[in-house]
Amino acid sequence: MHDDDHRVQQGRRRRSIRTGGVSVHLAGRHEFAKWDELMRTHHELGFRRFVGRGLRHIVERDGQWLCLAGWQTGCFKSAPRDRWVG
Predict the structure, then answer these.
(1) Which residue ranges of the chain lie beneath pLDDT 70?
(2) What pTM, to 2 d.p., does this model score?
(3) Out of 14, 68, 77, 85, which could bridge 9 as a Cys pair, Cβ 3.0 to 4.6 Å?
(4) Domain assignments of the chain as residue spans, ordered by start
(5) Which residues does residue 17 pair with via DSSP β-bridges, in sequence order?
(6) Cα–Cα distance between 25 and 18 in angstroms, integer?
(7) Mind spelling out the 3-state secondary structure of the chain?
């Protein structure tokens, strides 16, 4: 069961989804540098920067980051992928 946790962050509401002690949230600007550095260091393909707009998500437990996910506008439109998926 998911429990939504709302926090105020830089004047905006921050929404986290929590389940089993683990939470997922959209990274705030103050977390971008750490997120980018961890991706550069640990992603098998590396990471330079987002091209266009992007979203960074963080999965954490007890304040420790466990997993990162990133989405950029380029992933929303890809003709070869769209043909393959159908």
Answers:
(1) 1-14, 75-77
(2) 0.67
(3) 14
(4) 24-85
(5) 4, 24
(6) 9
(7) CCEEEEEEECCEEEEEEEECCEEEEECCHHHHHHHHHHHHHHCCCCCCCCCCCEEEEEEEECCEEEEEEEEEHHHHCCHHHHHHHC
